[in-house]
Amino acid sequence: MKSGILNSVLVEQVRNTAAWLWADAACRPLTEIFDSSVDEPLDAPGALERALRLRLAAHYATVATFVPTDVDAHIRHHMWVLVPDEDTFVRAKGCVDEAAARDATQVSARVTEGLSGHDGEWFSVRAGALGRALVLGLDAEAAQLADEIDAELDREQRVFAGAVARGAPATTTLKLATTIAHNLGDLSRVVDAWPKGARVGELHTRYSRLGHSDGAGQRREFVLAGELNKELMAVENHRFLALRKPRALRRSRELLLPVGPWFDEWGEKIGRSELLEDADRAEVVEALLELHFRSPVQDGCLRALAGIHRATRGGLAYYGTALPARLRKEVGRGRIREAIDVPRERFEARIDGRYRAALARLAKGAGERRRASA
User: Measured by CB atoms within 10 angstroms of the end CB, which terminus of the chain is less buried, N or C?
Assistant: First the structure.
């Protein structure tokens, strides 16, 4: 049986993107998993569970960093296919429970009201385990996994519904919407990849396309979150691949990127952080400019540039000599200049206005559809 990646290679990948974990005493139980891992064949006694535990730890540690480890398919699909029997399954599920109990705020700047993309990672892994339980005929284990997935879905629904009901600002509600849309999308992709025999039951229908109006198990709040994400947030939360190049951003948990497009504060942090030299900041500015020209409609990278501008004596022009000539001349004009001239408060008010208008329109449309179907 092949593990897909050597344990030692995976640990080096974690060190490459999140070496700061080893300096944080609170993360010691996590780093001990990495430090104790060895390369071993998966057919050795207990090796499958140890490999799964390591991959879950690596995913937890890096999924919200600039360079995540690429183990999604392993922890959601491939390793569960290798689980041969009930005893191994129970031990493997215990690894998932351990991972899901960890605090996402230790490794992510994208936690809103206790909700994060990590929550979706864990119920997606549980969905992968559920598919295997159905194949193996482990009814009790399957029922427990379904209960755990349902409990997390219920929690996410309550958090989002509560934010909408109390009129929370866009900085809260839209972050929740994009997180939930991401989480539901992951869940749907996992159950849609279940073996054919597992895809014929009620559970597949329950968990597929929950954020879409055509989903059989749809919930009104999830559909609204999906629509808001598609209209206002999806363009703002791509993978920001250009930010993988500035290695200085990997020096601390403090430098992790939050949910976009609210990057003003992050940009100011980049401009002032004692963890960074001017050469590091110039590299970040270059990466943000590259992001802007690849996706001109995206506001987040512009807000980050505006934040760096405010936090830097001399503004963005200070980094001009360190930039490629093709980018240097763009720093003070076009949408970049416009972003610099718009205060953070006015930008956030503009986003909030767009959110309120979209929410009213979507709510009205949903009401009309309900009346038409009555």
Answer: C
The token duo for 313 is 């004596």
Mean of pLDDT values over 60-65: 98
Both 170 and 304 in a single domain? no
Per-residue pLDDT of 147-206, as tens digits, reads 999 999 999 999 999 999 999 999 999 999 999 999 999 999 999 999 887 776 788 888
Same domain as 303, residue 173: no
| In-domain check, residue 356 | no
Whether residues 99 and 132 share a domain: the answer is: yes
Residue 47 is assigned to a structural domain of this protein:
yes
Q: Same domain for 41 and 113?
A: yes
Residue 201: predicted pLDDT = 79
Q: DSSP code of 229?
A: I
DSSP string, 43-94: TSTTHHHHHHHHHHHHHHHHTTSSS--S-HHIIIIIHHHT--SHHHHHHHHH
CA distance 151 to 262: 30
Same domain as 271, residue 143: no
Same domain, 203 and 146: yes
C-alpha 318/C-alpha 24 separation (Å) is 34
Residue 125 to residue 162: CA distance in whole angstroms? 27
Name the maximum alpha-carbon separation found in the chain: 66
Average pLDDT, whole number, for the chain?
A: 93
